[in-house]
Amino acid sequence: MMKTRRFFRTLMAILLLVACFTCSVDLPLMRRAEAAAAKTDAYIVTWDNRTIRAGKTFGWSDNGQTYTSPLTIYYSNADTMRVRLLNGRGKVVNGQDQSWNLSWASGSVSWSGSVPKGSDPGTYKVRVDLTSGKRTRTFNFNWKVTKYVHTALPTDSMQRKFNYLQYMLPQGKFWNHGVRGVTTIRLDNGMTTTISSSRCNAWSHKKENFRDRAATCNYANNGYQCHGFAMMLATYVWGSEPTNRSKVTDPSAADTLEPGDVVRFLKDKHTIFVLRVEKGTVYFADCNWGQTCRIRWNGKISAKKLKKTFSYVYKYSMR
Ligand SMILES: [Zn+2]
């Protein structure tokens, strides 16, 4: 009798243990099941028959018009899909918001976007929302529009050149080489140069190490850093290299600066490229203000201040 009772007690203990064990493994098992389910609604996006991953730049377009190689999105077990094309500010490009009802099916959808004329060039975002039940998964891909597409605006040809140069040599990038993230830039007149996302080595920018500036700083038209940059912009806009023929050293020239002028000032230490002059303020592009070869398009200084340390100007009007 005692033996039987002990047997049942032991059996109960074992059963309880098993029950508890089941309890404790129940939740992770559910999670694993969920994870397995989530895997079934995975999808693949291809462009030009190549698989691309979210967050990657999948292509580029020269003219900012319709894509010639559309994205193909393969999905499984999804209810709806929505594809939107967003501009650089995160706004939906006019008319570029498409949805599909997939009815918990597997298959593929082809998408091609278009950027209307007059849009800014740059990186557009293709946002894919894939919904299964209550869950929506969002994936972003980048589409690069490389050519300046302001065909209607602006009408002024010099302003158009400024805009183009600003697009090709953007604010915040560095006019240098031999560092990380270097891109070769080919301008539409055949000129080539490089920009990067890394500042110049501060060491090579120090006065005593100045002879080593060639290691990372760029060179153009007989000048490194700010001078080479301003001369390069002028060469593109003028259609020829600025020469000594048009060098004006009289400081009063600071009062009559015009777009396209190359100004040397700060007692022969800095060079800027004039974009416009308004009410005594000179707006300019330059590089290396701050000694890292960083590119700026929003520089401004009063003509009065500029005159005080004026060295000379290459006049666009005397090109
Ligand atoms: Zn530099």
Secondary-structure element order, N to C: HEEEEEEEHEEHEEHEEEEEHE
Biggest β-sheet, characterized? Answer: 7 strands, mixed
Output the structural class.
alpha+beta
Measure the end-to-end span: 118 Å
Shape: elongated
Arithmetic mean of pLDDT: 79
Question: Number of helix segments?
Answer: 5
Write down the Rg. Answer: 31 Å
Tell me which ligands are bound.
Answer: zinc ion
Beta-strand content: 35-45%
**Portion in helices:** 10-25%
Work out the number of β strands. 17
> Into how many domains do the coordinates divide?
2
Could you list the spans in which at least 5 consecutive residues all have pLDDT below 50? Answer: 15-41, 149-155
Task: Name a few traits of the molecule.
single chain; 319 residues; alpha+beta; Immunoglobulin-like; 2 domains; 6-stranded antiparallel sheet; 17 strands; 24% helix; elongated; binds zinc ion
Task: Describe the structure concisely for a colleague.
The chain is an alpha+beta fold.
List the topology elements.
Layout: H1 2-40, E1 44-47, E2 50-52, E3 57-61, E4 71-86, E5 92-111, E6 122-132, E7 135-145, H2 157-168, E8 182-186, E9 192-196, H3 202-205, E10 219-220, E11 223-224, H4 225-238, E12 247-248, E13 262-265, E14 270-278, E15 281-287, E16 295-302, H5 303-308, E17 312-314
Parallel strand pairs: 3-7
Antiparallel strand pairs: 1-2, 1-4, 4-5, 4-6, 6-7, 8-9, 10-11, 12-17, 13-14, 13-17, 14-15, 15-16
